[in-house]
Write a structure and sequence with these properties.
globular; 44% helix; alpha/beta
Length: 318
């Protein structure tokens, strides 16, 4: 049995990323019911909002699901308390030091996975005792690594320095990309952008349609003086790029970002003035579908391509 499938007790080694303003209980439960691992994104939720999403997810699925927690969240203690009180068994942590909460969570029976973007933090995560890591390449949407290492380079480098399972993320939205990640050594994949446009995604419809209209080159890594984030091009992104090019300070960039900019764009649907976080794979996404269909299409393509490579191997060996 696949290592990650066994760790999470799921059918397919496919994890839905915990995305702010996109991954509430509807998306998480739909992915879990389809055989993957659904994740509720706590980064855009107050503690009691998260509690409500967890409770609704429990009612909507009897399959395993998890919660993604950015460790720099201002109400982190309250978020952790909610996760423990609601008996969530899987936590994906990100944006912070995994050593702070991993032992606390594991002592309470929680499986912990940490998101990293370089070998240094992969080693630190393993030393902190996490059960697995998500290695996220430069292609990914949302907050990103400063090193700008692509998934194809990152996964084999991470596999060289850790012994725990590695979940590949960044630029993966198809069965072909999933097979490539496995060829690089990944034990599973985490998929964000492709599920952001699922029918069950809590993203605003205007944002979803902006994503499926995206072309090659329509995303850009920005705000490197703050926390690097991959954005879909719009008026806000153009303003940020111009400000960076003309030497804006971190303080000035923070003022341009303002408050709740991501909510404005991704959840409320202001596709010009809002912050639209999405990955490079958006250029390959062409329609809005149920999460189950998205997962099943990816898995079927993965199996088909794997069979083709087995045939190719036989041809080369003959």
């Amino acid at each position: 049995m696949n290592t990650i499938c066994k760790l999470f007790n799921i059918k397919y080694p496919i994890v839905q990323a915990g995305m702010v303003w996109c991954s509430g209980w509807r998306l998480a439960s739909a992915v879990s019911n389809a055989g993957g691992l659904g994740i509720i994104g706590a980064g855009s939720m107050y503690p009691e909002v998260l509690r409500s999403h967890i409770q609704k997810c429990k009612l909507a699925t009897h399959q395993p699901f998890g919660v993604n927690i950015p460790l720099l969240y201002p109400n982190i203690q309250q978020i952790i308390d909610v996760v423990i009180e609601e008996q969530v068994k899987i936590v994906f942590s990100s944006a912070g030091n995994p050593a702070t909460w991993t032992s606390f969570l594991k002592e309470r029976g929680v499986t912990v996975v940490h998101v990293i973007a370089n070998t240094k933090f992969a080693i630190k995560a393993q030393e902190a005792g996490v059960d697995a890591i998500v290695a996220e390449g430069f292609e990914a949407g949302g907050h990103n690594g400063r090193e700008e290492t692509t998934t194809m380079c990152l996964i084999p480098m991470i596999k060289e320095v850790v012994d725990i399972p590695v979940i590949a993320a960044g630029g993966i939205g198809s069965g072909k990309a999933m097979l490539a990640a496995f060829a690089l050594g990944a034990d599973a994949v985490q998929i964000g952008s492709a599920f952001a446009v699922a029918e069950e995604s809590s993203a605003h419809e205007a944002f979803k349609y902006k994503i499926i209209a995206a072309n090659e080159g329509d995303t850009k890594l920005a705000m490197k003086k703050l926390v690097p984030v991959r954005l879909l091009k719009n008026e806000f992104a153009d303003t940020i790029v111009h400000a960076e090019a003309t030497g804006a300070s971190p303080k000035e960039l923070a003022e341009l970002l303002g408050h709740a900019r991501a909510k404005l764009g991704m959840f409320e649907g202001d596709i010009e003035n809002g912050e639209l976080e999405i990955g490079q794979v958006s250029a390959m996404l062409k329609s809005i579908k149920p999460a189950r269909v998205i997962l099943e299409e990816i898995w079927q393509e993965f199996k088909n391509k794997l069979a083709q490579f087995a045939q190719l191997q036989n041809e080369l060996d003959s």
